[in-house]
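Look at a sample.

——
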Amino acid sequence: MTRRPSGDSFRTWDLPPDLRAPAVARDLTRKTLADWGLDAVADDILLVVSELVTNAAVHGAPPIRLQLRLGPDCLYGSVVDHGGILPRRVNMQDDMTEHGRGLALISTITTSAGWKHTPAGATHVWFTYRLPRR
């Protein structure tokens, strides 16, 4: 069994400014979670990261930055792009909706999630994920 590092750990990456970004983000995240001993939650986190980075690659503008921070009981992640378009929630009751389900999915997987525009005009989407007790 891999042990989690003590204290906080932080990673940040600038991703390719195209549709390769989600695959690169998944690979980097998978390796980082393994290094941090978080294989048990990897599927959830990989899905969240993939959704957020895909949104940034499709709807945003470069640069796209992924950040992960491991705290004592929580994983924090964020994706920043410069597209200036804020995500919107969709009505999940509408079975015909083809887009927008990713954010609803993220909200059910994570402890909390949100987004904002930064003063520099970037879109910052973040999430927290409570880790299981060791």
